[in-house]
From TrEMBL:
<dbReference type="InterPro" id="IPR030798">
    <property type="entry name" value="Arfaptin_fam"/>
</dbReference>
<dbReference type="GO" id="GO:0000139">
    <property type="term" value="C:Golgi membrane"/>
</dbReference>
<dbReference type="GO" id="GO:0019904">
    <property type="term" value="F:protein domain specific binding"/>
</dbReference>
<keyword id="KW-0597">Phosphoprotein</keyword>
<feature type="coiled-coil region">
    <location>
        <begin position="252"/>
        <end position="313"/>
    </location>
</feature>
<dbReference type="GO" id="GO:0032588">
    <property type="term" value="C:trans-Golgi network membrane"/>
</dbReference>
<keyword id="KW-0333">Golgi apparatus</keyword>
<feature type="coiled-coil region">
    <location>
        <begin position="147"/>
        <end position="174"/>
    </location>
</feature>
<protein>
    <submittedName>
        <fullName>Arfaptin-2b isoform X6</fullName>
    </submittedName>
</protein>
<dbReference type="GO" id="GO:0070273">
    <property type="term" value="F:phosphatidylinositol-4-phosphate binding"/>
</dbReference>
<feature type="domain" description="AH">
    <location>
        <begin position="145"/>
        <end position="345"/>
    </location>
</feature>
<dbReference type="GO" id="GO:0008104">
    <property type="term" value="P:intracellular protein localization"/>
</dbReference>
<keyword id="KW-0472">Membrane</keyword>
<feature type="region of interest" description="Disordered">
    <location>
        <begin position="1"/>
        <end position="25"/>
    </location>
</feature>
<dbReference type="InterPro" id="IPR027267">
    <property type="entry name" value="AH/BAR_dom_sf"/>
</dbReference>
<dbReference type="Pfam" id="PF06456">
    <property type="entry name" value="Arfaptin"/>
</dbReference>
<dbReference type="GO" id="GO:0005829">
    <property type="term" value="C:cytosol"/>
</dbReference>
Length: 365
């Protein structure tokens, strides 16, 4: 039994030479530990000797691998750590393409990261300068660029928008109240008509009132069409046209703040020493100053043009809508149904048929 174990151990020995001298591995207490140590140590092909001997024999022949002549074999390792021998025709070309693709991907990733970092850096620097300028203006330490004529026009526009928003709010309230009154008149007319059928002694009186309420309801619906058109036009003027101009004004005010921030930065650098480093910083600050100056002047021109066009558009829209509102209200309360209908035709207002806004029974299912 002992001889059998020794013969197995002899066949598993792999001599390894570190300095050109061969030596045997030390035997451990168990064969399993020997096998694990051999697999972990990983013999070097250039330093490995081949042990030849019979199973259980006492003699062995050691043939150094350096004496074996043959073509060189390239062993590659895949991403799982497994060794593979490339086929003929592969080899360095595949390795070269793979390394180039990995390097290109790495460079692209690095380029994106650098670009994002530059964007964040510029944004942080711009935010810092603008915040510093804003605080300086609040405490009266910094100067700001002011266009007195344009600032007055902007203030008038904001005040006009507030007043028109109040007109819009009141017109909507009038529409809601008048709609409720029309619905009440419609219900009252139906009730009078029903009572005229069930009360023979008061048939004529209930009938007259039913006809009157139906006529008022019809005229009320016509007037509601005119008021709804008025409200829709005022809403477009206030919440779209004026709001668009105010958005441009907001962009203009932000550009003005940036312009003053970079102007103050340039003035501060000009008051400092004039060494080589400072001159380079002054040149860079001058470029940024010019960029923001051009942006500020462009937006100032846009605001001036938009305010002018807004004023012209406001006059045209309000002239038409106020005339409509006056004629419709006057005709309704004068009881002139023909003039009321003529007013709607004059302004190309088409009334929706009753129940047009209600969903069909198929849509309700």
């Amino acid at each position: 039994m002992a001889d059998s174990m020794m013969s197995k151990a002899a066949t598993m020995e792999i001599p390894i030479s570190s300095n050109g001298d061969s030596r045997n591995l030390a035997e451990d207490d168990s064969l399993e530990q020997d096998l694990q140590q051999v697999m972990v140590s990983g013999p070097n092909l250039n330093e490995t000797s081949i042990v030849s001997g019979g199973y259980g024999g006492t003699t062995e022949g050691i043939i150094p691998t350096s004496s074996i002549k043959g073509p060189a074999v390239r062993i590659n390792t895949d991403f799982l750590g497994n060794r593979r021998i490339p086929n003929e025709g592969q080899g360095s070309n595949m390795d070269y393409v793979g390394s180039n693709s990995s390097m290109a991907a790495e460079e692209a990733t690095r380029g994106v990261a650098v670009e994002k970092f530059d964007i964040m850096k510029k944004w942080g620097l711009n935010t810092y300068k603008c915040t510093k300028q804003m605080i300086s203006e609040r405490f009266g330490r910094g100067s700001r660029t002011v266009d007195l004529e344009l600032e007055a026009q902007i203030e008038v526009l904001r005040e006009t928008k507030r007043k028109y928003e109040n007109v819009l709010r009141l017109a909507r309230a009038l529409t809601n109240h008048f709609y409720s009154m029309v619905q009440t008149q419609h219900a009252l007319g139906d009730t009078f008509a029903d009572l005229s059928q069930k009360s023979p002694e008061l048939r004529d009186e209930f009938g007259y009132n039913a006809e009157t309420q139906k006529l008022l309801c019809k005229n009320g619906e016509t007037l509601l069409g005119a008021i709804n058109f008025f409200v829709s036009s005022i809403n477009t003027l206030v919440n779209k046209t004026m709001e668009d101009t105010l958005m441009t004004i907001k962009m203009y005010e932000n550009a003005r703040l940036e312009f003053d921030a970079y102007r103050a930065d340039l003035e501060e650098l000009n008051m400092g020493p004039r060494d080589a480093v400072t001159m380079a910083r002054i040149e860079a600050a001058q470029q940024q100053y010019q960029i923001h100056k051009d942006k500020y002047e462009r937006l100032r021109s846009d605001v001036t043009i938009k305010i002018k066009f807004l004023e012209e558009n406001k006059v045209k829209v309000m002239h038409k809508q106020l005339l409509l509102f006056h004629n419709a209200i006057s005709a309704y309360f004068a009881g002139n149904q023909q003039q009321l209908e003529q007013t709607l035709k004059q302004f190309n207002i088409k009334l929706k048929p009753p129940g047009a806004d209600k969903p069909s029974w198929l849509e309700e299912q």
